[in-house]
Structures are given as structure tokens and as C-alpha cells.
Amino acid sequence: MAVLVITGTGTEVGKTVTTAAVAAAALAAGRSVAVLKPAQTGVRPDERGDADEVARLAGAVTTLELARYPEPLAPATAARRASLPPVSPVAVAKAAAELATEHDLVLVEGAGGLLVRFDDEGGTLADAASLLDAPVLVVASAGLGTLNTTELTARELRRRGLDMAGIVIGSWPDSPDLASRCNLADLPVVAEAPLQGALPAGAGAYPVADFCAQASGWLASRLGGTWDANAFISAQGV
């Protein structure tokens, strides 16, 4: 798995912290890691972006951002409003492939969900994943409403013939409600893909040393970790 594409079922589901956890686990295993952010929106030129946050949490990763737009909008809209060139799936795939020649693992973190548009031609992260023939990890929320958005994302990945690497819950609450606990059993069913991890709520605010030490325990073996889905589900009383 030289390239792993990381998408979400929407915004604010924990994509960046999940990307950082995967990077930290890979680094702990002695692998070299690059993080590619195709389009960063909603930040000024002097502000830290998502790739910078991954590097802060995970450690010595190579970071690359292809484009940055000031307004917190979909990349195609933000590019158009800023009169800046958009990012194309071809450019994303080319950058990821180049990084893969020098790194053991390249993590491509999308913006928003799988079909958020990069450009006015309708190019998306899914198109870039197709060009790369890369597996796609889906980061989902824990609670009510996640089943629908996760199933829609999974169906689109299957329609395109893409490998869904699984689901990571980007923020598992300290006191999960009934819906969240039931979703642990239901998410793999509706997505037809396994749970590959669950990050504790607020993990992005952990001290860096604690984040790096614990990251592998939040992720399953496919992502370089030790997390066990069955044990986690059992512990939640599902």
C-alpha cells in the first residue's frame, strides 16, 4: 500500500487527525511517510493547514499542498471565487505518484467528502484515487446519521471499482449514546467494509508524545496498528 487516499463522509469528521494517526503508526514502524493535501481551503497563506497539523502530531513526515484558497468552501468554488487555478485529479495523481517514489507510504487527504469537486469539470478525489488505483479509507462520524452517509460513500466507491480500505470512526465519544454504540455493528454491514479503527474524541489535542505513543492502538492491523474491532465492540456492550 504505497498510496492511501483518505476521505470522509463529510466535513469535521476527523480526517486530519486520522491521517496523523496513520502517519504516526507508520513512522513508529520505521516507514517513511508523505502527506499530500490536494486543496486546502479556509486558511490564509500564513496559517497552518491540515498537512501542517498532521506533521505537528505525527512527526517527521514530508508534506505537500498543491493549492490553497482563502474561503472555507468546496475547492472548485473556492478557486473560482479567488480567481485562482483549480486542482485537477491528474495533478493530484501525478504528485502522489512522485512522492511514492521516495516514500514508503503516501497519504492523500481530501477536502470534505469523496465527491467534493476540485474543478469546474467535476473532478473529484474519487477520480484521483482511480488514476492512482489506490485504496480509499473512509473516516466517519460515530452518531446518528452516519449510516446513510457512510453507505452512500461506500456505494460510490464500489460503483467506481475502487478498493475501500475500511472505515475509521474519527471521533469516538467518551460517553457514547445508543446510536453510536449500535453503529459499531451496523457500519460494517451498510458499508460492506470492516471497521479499521476508532480515535478518541479530542485526540488532536493530546500532547504530541501521547498522540504518537497511542496512535497504533487506535488503528487496525491494515493501517499498521493493534486495534481489534471485536474487542472494541464488545467493550461498548454492543
Topology:
Blueprint (H helix, E strand, L loop, with lengths): L2 E6 L6 H14 L4 E9 L8 H9 L3 E8 L5 H8 L6 H12 L4 E9 L11 H8 L3 E5 L5 H14 L4 E9 L5 H14 L3 E6 L7 H7 L14 H7 L3
Parallel strand pairs: 1-4, 1-5, 2-3, 2-4, 5-6, 6-7
Can you characterise this structure?
By secondary structure, this protein is an alpha/beta fold. The protein is 39% helix and 22% strand. The chain has 9 helices and 7 strands, in the order βαβαβααβαβαβαβαα. It has a 7-stranded parallel sheet, sandwiched between helices. β2 (33-41), α2 and β3 (62-69) form a beta-alpha-beta unit. It is globular, with a radius of gyration of 17 Å. The two termini are 32 Å apart.
Tell me the major beta sheet: 7 strands, parallel
Helix content: 25-40%
- Structural class call reads alpha/beta
Through-space gap between termini: 32 Å
Radius of gyration: 17 Å
Number of helices: 9
Biggest sheet strand order reads: 3-2-4-1-5-6-7
Question: What is the compact description of this entry?
Answer:
Helix 6 (146-159) links the parallel strand 5 (136-140) and strand 6 (164-172).
